[in-house]
Amino acid sequence: xxxxxxxxxxxxxxxxxxxxxxxxxxxxxxxxxxxxxxxxxxxxxxxxxxxxxxxxxxxxxxxxxxxxxxxxxxxxxxxxxxxxxxxxxxxxxxxxxxxxxxxxxxxxxxxxxxxxxxxxxxxxxxxxxxxxxxxxxxxxxxxxxxxxxxxxxxxxxxxxxxxxxxxxxxxxxxxxxxxxxxxxxxxxxxxxxxxxxxxxxxxxxxxxxxxxxxxxxxxxxxxxxxxxxxxxxxxxxxxxxxxxxxxxxxxxxxxxxxxxxxxxxxxxxxxxxxxxxxxxxxxxxxxxxxxxxxxxxxxxxxxxxxxxxxxxxxxxxxxxxxxxxxxxxxxxxxxxxxxxxxxxxxxxxxxxxxxxxx
Length: 358
Fold this sequence. Notes:
The protein contains 13 helices and 13 strands.
């Protein structure tokens, strides 16, 4: 079995991290695999297992015919059995299926705005998905959505959640001041503004902290507003921008409390990574986040766009550190059991083995 993955780029984000995690898992299991970034490479490639074959195509646009034929030559050379297309890579994945009809084409839908599917119907996908052998979705809302569409039979749509890969080094206490962490690209969906308002509240209440904001600037105007608010709130000395990082494991192990302030999510990889690092975690109750934090035993769920609730949760965690660390350990055990790489591998292999090619 040879597996080829298509992903747009390897800059920073949940989709990109999942493609890396999958490649590393396949390599660990002795499965020959190939990872192709169709647009550009990035620092995340440094986290790729050396046994994975990697190609960066640097395509200029969707109509870059010469680059597509370079991909076709690559496919002829390595002769994969399965093409696994992530998100918008489905377009070139479909073209590969037309040129190489014996390939099994599996599309992985990572769509993060699953709470707003009616606003983003993605009708352009209807044509391309007719060439797909199976759809993998990362949460139940996407599963229900695609099954209701009737583009593919229901038995060709599978729910397999994201999984994290983190080297955990242990956690005994918290720093002074506490180190907060948010892994989230800068776009409106991640709602950094609510986070900043919560940080302003705890700062005015005399709580000492530092926070690292890790992520790619996806929406420049959003990032500019975030920087402006930081100055307005007097938080400049408290906040560090790290951009997209290829040292996520290090950041997770060095931090004390993890936050995710999104207004919409599917099943965020960042939340699972927080869990594997046993971090006390505060997250907005959106998408499938409640499946990762199903009760107060595992962390803190707060309403989206509610800076007061987020600030109250932060203040509680910082003032109840022993309880917070215990919840972090509970979360780690929960994530390993229900969202770990072994579970993903088993479910994924069942699809490859049992599902007949169309």
